[in-house]
Design a protein that fits this description.
It contains five helices and nine strands, in the order ββββαββαβαβαβα. By secondary structure, the chain is an alpha/beta fold.
Amino acid sequence: MEKDVEIGIFGGTGIYDSGLLENPKEIIVDTPYGKPSDSITVGIFKGRKIVFLPRHGKKHTIPPHMINYRANIWAFKELGVSRIIAPSAVGSLKQEIEPGHFALPTQFLDFTKSRIGSFSEEGRVIHISVADPFCPELQNSIKKVINEHDDKIHQDCTYVCIEGPRFSTKAESKFYRTTNADIIGMTLVPECQLAREAQMCYASISTVTDYDVWAEKPVTAKEVLETLGKNVEKTKKILVDLIEKIPTTRGCKCSAALAEAEF
């Protein structure tokens, strides 16, 4: 099995095939937590070994509350991945964050209900710090790319993660706005916190697909997919430039996340 992969990419809604990799091959990884979302594509991009996994499966058959997040993260870790880039689709909770824009989350609010959010099991207790949930080094690389693109990207956003797969009621949406959060989605948690427990760098790039129902505009899956379709190529261009700018060695503290987390 591959053990020397450097960067992992989770494909979000609308991005099922990276289309970026040279000499790609698909591999199956079994984990102690069951099967990942799909087979994993391994390949080379400008001299760096990359893996790609569509978190909802290649045919979008897995709803967000049923994604095996622990298996996905474990599989990447087993392959040697130390950095994860995680594109995703989100709704907007603020007027100025418009559909078609991008958002860079730096904080999250967890409103999920049934997901297993830790590798902690009986006999091992992990109290991981997520005061700053995302890798600062990866985020700096993303910001450099952002500054070079003409696309509108909102930085330092707070992401509300809900259980799904349903969209919010109007009352829920208006409540989330009272928290001063910026965007809302269904996949960030527990993905990012499991990556931290696995001592991997993690950063998310969100595509804004709609105004959540606070704006009195009911959200539909069709609307989401139409907006995503327009932004897929933009997302891929961001990924291309981002991979080139990620330092070859890690200068962050993500690799030591467990140093003070276990009893």
